[in-house]
Design brief:
Elements (H helix, E strand, L loop, with lengths): L10 H11 L5 H24 L11 E6 L4 E6 L6 H8 L6 H11 L27 E9 L6 E8 L2 E7 L5 E8 L14 H11 L7 E10 L19 E9 L16 H12 L7 E7 L5 E7 L16 E5 L2 E7 L11 E5 L16 H24 L1 H24 L2 H4 L4 E4 L11 E3 H6 L8 E5 L3 H5 L5 H5 L4 E4 L4 H8 L1 E2 L2 E5 L11 H13 L1 H10 L6 E5 L7 E6 L4 H8 L10 E7 L3 H12 L1 H18 L7 H12 L1
Parallel strand pairs: 1-7, 11-13, 16-17, 16-19, 20-22
Antiparallel strand pairs: 1-2, 2-6, 3-4, 3-6, 4-5, 7-8, 9-10, 10-13, 11-12, 14-15, 14-17, 18-19, 21-22
Helix pairs in contact: 7-8, 8-13, 15-18, 17-18
Length: 652
């Protein structure tokens, strides 16, 4: 029998497709099953269009047979089949797709009757079939077209060509037999003949093919002999004997949950699906099930997890949604469907409108994908806002897990996404909740709505914990005036606030800022001015004593009971200094520190008196007060031994 050469290109092209286009050999099974599904779809469409009787969807199936001894894997369908000419045309020409031609013809046909509404053609590029050569030495295709009397066999061992001959086959459809390659040191091809592996691949890639994928599977059962005579002397506890038998089993679930009507699904259905598919023991906080039709059509089933994965905030975490095309999984994680700040979302997108390239596992970065991503981003944001407004307790739990990611989203890209995310932020507040309001978590909008008429700024405080922030000396004067303060405990908080700059026309101001710009009475201003004049020389001397550790030493009205605190002048705060210096940097940064002394504390009178009689002791006091201020800020004294010694000297 004369061997025919492929009509398209050369051995190099086939080698490229086999060795380069597909990154994982296992996808060959996905491609062949998808082709079988296409063949059944074509026949089903034809039966609807031509009014053929006696043909129901339940009559169609895809069969898999694995023979480990003979090293063959066979995929059989009872779809439309191929004539000799079609086999020559579709299999003899690399990158020629009968599915693509069929889809084009179907789109041009008169669809007023609606016969094509329920038909999906998965394969469009004619290359998937050749992925079979990645795992096999020889591929044999026997096909009989629907309505034809004869069958034909196509056979090839690779790029050197193929043979065609007449064959025998009962009924219409196509049978593809692969002679699986021998194992090598690098590859174990035998796995593709094992029941467990085949099950795994079908569940991973083809679980939602609309037709049953069936295979004879091995079972065992106790041996029962109804004619056996019971031996009273026999051991009644002896282990029963088992026999092996084979049973035809459907390996795929066929109907995707996301394609069912939402009205027919319960919370339990969604929760169970999520737990099984994403190996999570906790119910999701929110389920987003949406079906979009229009210029770009897709179905999305998204989940907001109830807890963060153990590796979520590590470099090992991979974001992305599963991507399906007509129920066939194309990518396990498509990162382009989610922005980084929504990377916690799990789920999937199923669309038949995406432009897939010839390998069907690498997605082109085209406008369809971007359009879906943009719509998903808006949908996720709106659903989170709804959760925030309608179920604050659940949103607070969500924010505890993933709020940090939203804050990073505000900060990254120089705040380019702040307008999308600022309404999703919540912070612990100094406001004492009313009886009916158990939460002290506040949105920025809620804070602004409660601001006092004379209040100019949104005040915030940054620290290690809510408890420590609540005790900060810098918060005293604001609390005394009844101003609400937002407490921020994450490293990224102050960086994110710097990007926000303002909300609803109100600027942010740290309680540790050099000037809180709080309105004072004329009497208070006059008293402060006189005190500053009286202590001007003392404060200048203390600044010199601290030898460049601070930019300034001054009296302050912001403190009530505490004698001293540190504030920062300029754009770099003390908290930002701590965060940046914790990073691996060649040079450490330092904020412009200001040592503020409570103008109404007795320590001022003591210092003023000592300045006249014992300046050396003033120097010691200045050092102690500075180290105390460092400790209040959560920083260590530069010389702990000197600090301890100075305190002890005062105690003697």
């Amino acid at each position: 029998m004369a061997k025919k050469q492929f009509k398209a290109e050369s051995k190099r092209l086939l080698d490229l497709m086999i060795n380069s286009i597909y990154t994982h050999k296992e996808i060959f099974l996905r491609e062949l099953i998808s082709n079988a599904s296409d063949a059944i779809d074509k026949l089903y469409y034809r039966s609807l269009a031509d009014g053929l009787s006696g043909m129901n969807r339940e009559d169609f199936s895809i069969r898999i047979d694995a023979d480990r001894e003979g090293r063959t894997l066979t995929i059989t369908d009872n779809g439309i089949g191929m004539t000799k000419e079609e086999m020559e045309k579709n299999l003899g020409t690399i990158a020629r797709s009968g599915s693509l031609d069929f889809k084009a013809a179907m789109e041009q046909a008169d669809t007023k009757s609606g016969t094509g509404d329920d038909i999906d053609i998965i394969g469009q590029f004619g290359v998937g079939f050749y992925s079979a050569f990645m795992v096999s030495d020889k591929v044999t295709v026997v096909s009989r077209a629907f309505g034809a009397d004869e069958a034909w066999q196509w056979e090839s061992t690779g790029a050197d060509g193929y043979t065609m001959k007449e064959a025998q086959k009962d009924g219409h459809g196509t049978e593809i037999t692969l002679v699986i390659k021998a194992d090598t040191d690098d590859e174990r091809y035998t796995e593709f003949l094992e029941e467990y592996r085949i099950r795994t691949l079908i569940r991973k890639y083809s679980d939602y093919i609309r037709y049953p994928i069936q295979m004879m599977v091995e079972r065992s059962r106790p041996v029962e002999d109804p004619e056996a005579v019971v031996d009273e002397g026999a051991d009644q506890n002896a282990a029963p004997q088992y026999e092996t038998y084979y049973e035809l089993e459907t390996l795929n679930s066929m109907v995707p949950l996301w394609k069912k009507q939402k009205s027919s699904l319960t919370d339990e259905d969604y929760n169970q699906f999520y737990k099984e598919k994403y190996y999570d023991m906790t119910d999701p906080v929110k389920v987003i099930h949406t079906n979009v039709e229009g210029v770009i059509s897709y179905t999305a089933l998204l989940f907001i997890p109830g807890q963060a994965p153990y590796n979520y905030y590590s470099k090992d975490f991979e974001k992305g949604l599963q991507l399906y095309s007509s129920g066939v999984m194309i990518m396990d994680r498509c990162p382009d469907l989610l922005p980084d700040y929504f990377s916690f979302v799990r789920g999937l997108v199923d669309s038949q409108d995406l432009s897939l390239n010839i390998s069907r596992e690498m997605l082109q970065h085209d406008r369809q994908l971007k359009a879906i991503a943009q719509r998903l981003e808006k949908k996720i944001r709106s659903e989170l806002l709804e959760l925030l407004n309608k179920d604050r307790e659940s949103y607070a739990a969500f924010f505890k897990n993933f709020g940090l990611q939203l804050k990073y989203g505000v900060y990254e890209g120089f705040g380019m996404n702040k307008d999308k995310l600022q309404d999703l932020l919540i912070y612990y507040s100094s406001r004492e909740p009313e009886e009916e309001d158990e939460s002290r978590m506040a949105t920025l909008a809620e804070y602004v709505s409660r601001m006092k008429e004379e209040q100019k700024y949104i005040y915030y405080a940054v620290g290690e914990s809510v408890e420590k922030i609540d005790k900060m000396p810098q918060t005293e004067v604001l609390k005394d005036k009844g101003y609400e303060i937002l407490y921020m405990t994450d490293d990224v908080d102050e960086f994110a606030i710097q990007m926000l700059r303002e909300f609803d026309g109100k600027e942010f101001k740290s309680v540790s800022a050099d000037d809180l710009e709080i309105e004072e009475t004329d009497e208070e201003k006059e008293a402060a001015k006189k005190k500053e004049e009286d202590t001007k020389d003392l404060l200048a001397y203390m600044k010199d004593c601290l030898e460049g550790k601070v930019t300034d030493v001054k009296l302050t009205q912001r403190l009530k009971s505490h004698p001293v605190c540190l504030t920062a002048r300029g754009g770099l705060s003390i908290e930002m200094e701590k965060v940046l210096n914790a990073m691996p940097m060649d040079e450490k940064v330092k904020a412009e520190r200001v040592l503020e002394i409570n103008a109404n504390h007795k320590i001022v009178d003591t210092l003023q008196a000592l300045y006249q009689t014992d300046k050396e002791k003033v120097k010691t006091y200045a050092s102690i007060l500075y180290d105390e201020a460092l400790l209040i800020e959560g920083l260590h004294p530069e010389d702990p031994v000197a600090f301890a010694t100075a305190v002890c000297e005062l105690m003697i």
